[in-house]
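G., the chain you wanted modeled:
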Amino acid sequence: MFTGIIKGLATVIAVENREAFQVIKINAEGLVAKPVIGGSVAVNGVCLTIVAIEGSVFVFEVMQETLKLTTFEHVTVGEKVNIETPLQMGDELGGHLVQGHIDGTAEIIEKEAQGENTRVRFWVSAELGKSIVQKGSIAVDGISLTVCDPVAYPKQEVSSTFPQTVCFDVWLLPLTLERTTLGIKGVGDRVNIEVDYLMKAVMSRVENLRLRT
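Predicted structure as tokens:
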């Protein structure tokens, strides 16, 4: 379990793509206090298991289902990624509860500085957008953020991939831009999305009740 408070940026130093499988090496120097083989680390919001340790470099294996749902299918050497270590007993819950189980991806369609604040707008599929609500929590590349202004748009206005899309905004502080991937990524880049678990549970319950009536 994580909280969406990013420790810092690490660097991808090697990617080996196999059939429906990936081995990725990440230099996370100074970001994981006590790394152990078998331990979990959130990389861009994805909970991965350390399978080998080479000094400050951690080796992870990524399965087909993870590749399908996340941006890891297109990760490249030299890319910066967000790193977070698991929540420990007694730690402050500074963000919101994040499982590291990605629901899908979003694309940045606008990024605008307004004074010292920055507004970023994303689109997601209509299906994923069902669980995104105004003022709700969301993890974007593992970063705990608050949703602003979720709006449904016709396909032709935003995306040629889905028959309908949902757009939502987040507002970022300068510190968030400095310490996370959202300071690097721009329009057209994709990010991993994990919707708040409590909202998913509520929406699932509502849908089940609707189907029974």
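The chain has two domains: 8-84, 104-212.

Shout if anything looks off.
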